[in-house]
Design a protein that fits this description.
- This protein is α/β, with parallel strands linked by helices.
- It folds into two domains: about 140 residues, NAD(P)-binding Rossmann-like Domain (Rossmann fold, 3-Layer(aba) Sandwich), CATH 3.40.50; about 160 residues, Dihydrodipicolinate Reductase, domain 2 (2-Layer Sandwich), CATH 3.30.360.
- It is built from ten helices and 14 strands.
- Strands 6, 7, 8, 9, 10, 11, 12, 13 and 14 form a nine-stranded mixed sheet that branches.
- Strand 3, helix 4 and strand 4 form a beta-alpha-beta unit.
Length: about 325
């Protein structure tokens, strides 16, 4: 495999930009890192993270866009600016890996997808659960019919943060549902498809006098199933209760917590699975754990394989566009 010459555009305070760049550096046999560009106010807001770029040249945005040898970019600026820079990159013929879920408006995302379709370039969006092996296995089992007819999907992805992040949520359309709920919506759609109807129920906790939507909740309705998506930023112990529960006529599988992070490296993950395959609810579930996988490693390896033409992108332009529309609906927009 020839190396992919790649650059990073932007960095973010509260998402995965640092981890994505660090993952690129883990694979020097795949990625030839040309450098990075800071495009908003990241020199100030992300000052504590800039050490990750040590040893790599800082470039201007225009230098990255105009360099034909740079065939791919990771776009990792703040969420509300993502589509602007990703669209520029697409119009300059770059393959794109972008932070989730997209820009501030549907019109921006539609324009980005149109530019990508015209350019025929790979589009990868950083939904972090897509490459979790137990989640992938569960979705595959659902598609094979092993759990029977699915009638319920429950999801939860909560945490507890201070005033800075919770105030920042007010800059996002839909607050916490947009910020983290998008990960769960992606999983529900992969399991049940796009919903017939969405009931958004997000609220502001009002803690510390902050009025951003730091409690996200929505119901996704289907002809014979219901899914719930819950994500809050004021929940003590919320990280340990992150879960995906899929219930069908032949059994129920619960993944909880969705992630146990290794203390020395929070990108190294394990997941706990409990499985119920009998109707008698008094029977204990079968518990197992799979661990030691990197959250972003297969994500970026898959992106590289798509760029190299060795693999078809598992997520199409139209899927990403309809998913973004659904995320906005779940946010009440």
């Amino acid at each position: 495999m020839r190396k992919i010459r790649i650059a990073q555009i932007g960095l973010n305070q509260h998402s995965h930009g640092r981890m994505i760049f660090e993952t690129l550096t883990k694979f020097p046999e795949i990625f030839d890192i040309a450098g990075f560009a800071l495009v908003e106010d990241e020199r100030e807001t992300c000052a504590a993270q800039l050490h990750i770029f040590k040893g790599y040249p800082e470039l201007s945005l225009q230098e990255i866009l105009d360099d034909p040898t740079i065939e791919a970019v990771t776009v990792e600026t703040d969420e509300i600016h993502l589509c602007k820079y990703a669209k520029m990159a697409a119009e300059h013929g770059k393959h794109i890996h972008m932070e989730k879920p997209g820009g501030a408006t549907l019109a921006e995302f539609e324009a980005l997808v149109d530019a990508l379709k015209r350019a025929g370039k790979v589009f990868s969006v950083g939904y972090m659960y897509r490459y979790n092996p137990l989640i992938r296995e569960l979705i595959d089992r659902v598609k094979r019919g092993e759990l029977g007819d699915i009638y319920s999907v429950e999801t939860d992805m909560s945490r507890m943060d201070g005033q800075v992040l919770r105030s920042w949520l007010g800059t996002l359309p839909g607050g916490m549902m947009f910020y983290l709920g998008c990960h769960l919506i992606d999983l529900v759609v992969q399991i049940l498809g796009f919903p017939q109807h969405v009931v958004p129920l997000s609220r502001a906790s009002g803690q510390d006098g902050i009025d951003s939507l730091d409690m996200g909740l929505c119901v996704m309705e289907y002809p014979h199933a219901v899914a719930t998506v819950k994500t809050t930023d004021v929940e003590m112990g919320g990280f340990k209760r992150r879960k995906l529960v899929v219930a069908g006529s032949k059994g129920t599988v619960e993944l909880c917590p969705l992630e146990n992070c290794a203390p020395e490296d929070r990108t190294i993950i394990s997941t706990v699975r409990t499985e119920y395959t009998v109707r008698d609810f008094h029977e204990p579930g079968k518990v197992s754990e799979v661990g030691g996988f990197g959250r972003y490693e297969e994500m970026m390896q898959t992106f590289a394989a798509c760029v190299q033409g060795e693999r078809e992108n598992p997520y199409t332009y139209d899927y990403e566009l309809q998913l973004f529309r659904t995320v906005l609906q779940c946010c009440g927009l």
